Amino acid sequence: MSLGAHLVELRRRLMIAAIALVVGMVLAFIVADPIIHFITEPIRLITEKRGDDFSALNFSTVTSAFDMRMRIALSIGLFASAPVWLWQIWAFIMPGLTRKEVRYTVGFVAAAVPLFLGGCYLGVMIMPHIIELMWSFTPEGGTNFYAAQDYYDFIFKLMLVIGVSFVLPVFLVALNFAGIMSGRAILKGWRVAIIIATVFAALATPAADVVSMLMLAGILIVLYFAAAGLSLLFDRRKRKQDAAAGLLPDAA
Q1: What is d(CA 206, CA 204) in angstroms, rounded to the nearest whole number?
Q2: pLDDT at residue 84, as a whole number
Q3: Percent of the chain scored above 90 by pLDDT?
Q4: What is the mean pLDDT of the segment spanning 37-51?
Q5: Alpha-carbon dihedral of residues 224, 193, 220, 102, nearest 10 degrees?
Q6: Pfam families from the xrefs (predicted)?
Q7: Is 108 in contact with 170 (CB distance < 8 Å)?
Q8: Average pLDDT in the 220-247 region?
Q9: Model confidence at 23, in pLDDT bands (50, 70, 90)?
Q10: Residue 214, pLDDT above cutoff 50
Q11: In this structure, is the dihedral angle defined by the CA atoms of residues 172, 174, 179 and 184, taken in order, positive or negative?
Q12: I need a surface site. Which of 75, 87, 135, 244 has the fewest CB within 10 A?
């Protein structure tokens, strides 16, 4: 294909992806009420514990309620339309890949997507405990008016950060496949990895919520060692293939 044909193909696939995103956003905007009800459940629990109505989601501007719905629509729309726009990206780059590269890419995507969704799900599960714990530091006589934009940004960023952290082991395996890092080198840094996982878990969860911190840190450490184990297996298979091909150890 000529450069012009590639650009026409790219424009067509971007249009399809954009239409899918818009449709997903419209559907998400329609069902925004149950989502808002779900993410504000911790506020209602706080209100019940206080025995008053002085804890609430606060919409401080005329358009803030609409802005929050649009934020929800964009986030949910991206997730809902992901199969379509991911396929459009894949269909555009796949003709330029070899069969081996296609197989590896499919494997990495198949591993990364469930891990990312699992991380987002864990973020949703620990979110109410974090909000309730932070509320417990409110001094006697104080009130909690949560700005809608800040409240939603906190939940979205929490899900995103934990989701991305779950995908990092896949990138370690990808670096091993690319020959940048060996499995032994990945495993050698286990002490640093444990410290980083613990610090990240402490930053992503409240300091007083030890259970959530240990759970998140434990999952990240297990994923790290799983990535190191897979990399060691891949290195071993590569050495066997090199030996079968008659390559010298130094060349291998």
Answers
A1: 7
A2: 85
A3: 3
A4: 81
A5: -40
A6: TatC
A7: yes
A8: 81
A9: very high
A10: yes
A11: positive
A12: 244
Q: How far apart are CA 55 and CA 25, in angstroms?
A: 30
Structure tokens at 137: 């530091």
Pairwise CA distance, residues 80 & 150, whole Å: 23
197 close to 170: Cβ distance less than 8 angstroms? no
Nearest to 61 by CA among 135, 181, 128, 149: 149
Q: Which of 156, 144, 142, 149 is nearest to 59 (CA)?
A: 149
* Cβ–Cβ < 8 Å for 39, 155: yes
d(CA 167, CA 112): 5
252 — pLDDT class (breaks 50, 70, 90): very low
Quickly list DSSP for the chain. --HHHHHHHHHHHHHHHHHHHHHHHHHHHHTHHHHHHHHTHHHHHHHHHHTSS-EEEE--STTHHHHHHHHHHHHHHHHHTHHHHHHHHHHHHGGGS-HHHHHHHHHHHHHHHHHHHHHHHHHHHHHHHHHHHHHTTSPTT--EEEEHHHHHHHHHHHHHHHHHHHHHHHHHHHHHHTTSS-HHHHHHTHHHHHHHHHHHHHHHS-TT-HHHHHHHHHHHHHHHHHHHHHHHHHHHHHHHHHHHTT--TTT-
